[in-house]
Amino acid sequence: MIRTRFAPSPTGSMHLGNLRTALYAYLVAKSATPKGIFILRIEDTDRERLVEGSLEFIYKTLRGVGLNWDEGPEVGGNYGPYIQSERKAAYLQFAQTLIEKKAAYYCICSDEICKCRDENIQLKEGEAFAIRQAMPKEGSTTFTDLVYGEITVENKELEDQILIKRDGFPTYNFANVIDDHLMAITHVVRGSEYLPSTPKYVLLYESLGIEQPHYIHLPLILNQDGGKLSKRRGDANFEDLLEEGFLFEAVLNYIALLGWAPKDTTEIFSLQQLEEAFYIEGISKSPSSFDKTKLTWMNSEYIKKMSEDDFYQFALPYLQKSIKKEVDLKKAEREGDFVKAATILQQITQLRSSMKYVKWFSNFW
Q1: Are 183 and 1 in contact (CB under 8 A)?
Q2: Structurally, how many domains does the chain consist of?
Q3: Between the CA of residue 323 and those of 121, 243, 346, what are the distances in Å?
Q4: In terms of domains, do 182 and 106 share one?
Q5: What secondary structure does DSSP assign to 14-53, as a single string?
Q6: Residue 361 CB-density burial (10 A; 0-12 exposed, 13-18 middle, 19+ buried)
Q7: What are the strands, taking DSSP E only, across the chain?
Q8: Rounded to whole angstroms, how far apart are CA atoms 216 and 152?
Q9: Range of the domain at 77
Q10: Residue 331: pLDDT above 90?
Q11: Eight-state DSSP code of residue 212
Q12: Who has the most CB within 10 Å: 27, 64, 276, 364?
């Protein structure tokens, strides 16, 4: 049975690229016959970057768009714990195995400069240390990705990466390999930015003598200027889009098509329909561009299908928030003012597909 995972770090808001990775990992599992298992695993070993409240936001976002995990935090399963910081002991055991096989070594150097590999370091009692992977200095490493095909990298281009940090926590690159093995992950779905790191993962699997998963690397999502989506450059994240009035369903539908093409010209998909239509071969190698105009059109298609009551419940918080004058909000709602406003607003958004027009209504109170 196919087993996939989404393994976010609780370091802030949900970026669209992360949400698409979660969606594709979910669809790889749920489009299979029989349906596979979708796992949520929290990778919180980078302690300095943790952001309070991020964990709850991850749960809320995934559930909000319907990506309910079969195993993971708050759900359980036979392969837990599903939070990396609770699995700390396992990583060190595997790292010690690599040292015994001469595939890793102790390092007391700085992170930037490493001279320990050839000095046969003898640790002093209580001395802080890291553990690094010993990359082969000759030959090459080859792996097959289900999107990009066969890829070969010369081993001399690979640096001796840190596996266990001085604080005793594993690095992302090491922990995800060990966790994927222990959780019996069959298909690893992640962004193409991890392609250069994959030979290091392959060598870890080979050194440990454990079975490798299938790799599925996803193309980048670019902004309309051709750069990588970035909050720092003013690009919207998932939460921003919701605040602007885009529907959960519309955003999920849109990002499904950022890097994947169905076998026909269909563009509007429910999550269940995506499960039925999705196929790995439809994933593109080329980057996709985030087009807010296209998302806006798609949002209007969903708004058109909403009942007046559903749209009213959706629009009410935006209407209330937009009022700048001194208004008795309870009275306005009781007398049906918001219902009237929502009816007009739905007609407008069916054409313009944006909630930005709610501010216009504040002039009427």
Answers
A1: no
A2: 2
A3: 68, 16, 18
A4: yes
A5: --HHHHHHHHHHHHHHHTSSS--EEEE-B----GGG--TT
A6: buried
A7: 3-6, 37-40, 104-107, 130-133, 140-145, 149-154, 162-164, 187-191, 214-218, 221-222, 288-289
A8: 16
A9: 3-222
A10: no
A11: P
A12: 27
14, 20, 222, 227, 279 from 288: Cα distances, Å: 18, 12, 6, 11, 18
Instruction: Determine the average pLDDT of the residues in 1-7.
Output: 97
- Going by the DSSP 8-state scheme, the letter that residue 79 receives in this structure is T
> In 165-207, which ranges are E strands?
187-191
SS3 137: coil
Which CA distances in Å does 361 have to 15, 241, 315, 338, 341?
31, 21, 12, 10, 7
Phi, psi of 215 (to 5 degrees): -105, 135
Same domain, 269 and 191: no
d(CA 228, CA 232): 11
Inter-residue contact 190 to 21 (CB < 8 Å) = yes
Catalytic residues: 231
**Residues near 217 by beta carbon (within 8 Å), at least 6 away in sequence:** 145, 147, 148, 190, 191, 192, 194, 195, 198
**Do 212 and 352 fall into the same domain?**
no
Residues 111 and 199 in one domain: yes
pLDDT tens digits for range 151-181: 999 999 999 999 999 888 899 899 999 999 9
Q: Strand ranges (DSSP E) for 224-337?
A: 288-289
Q: 267 near 298, Cβ under 8 Å? A: yes
Residue 74: which CATH number? 3.40.50.620
Residue 318 CA to residue 313 CA, distance in Å, equals 10
Give the dihedral sign, CA 112/117/119/125: positive
Which residues neighbour 242 within 8 Å (Cβ) at sequence distance 6 or greater?
Answer: 248, 251
Residue 136 reports pLDDT greater than 80: yes
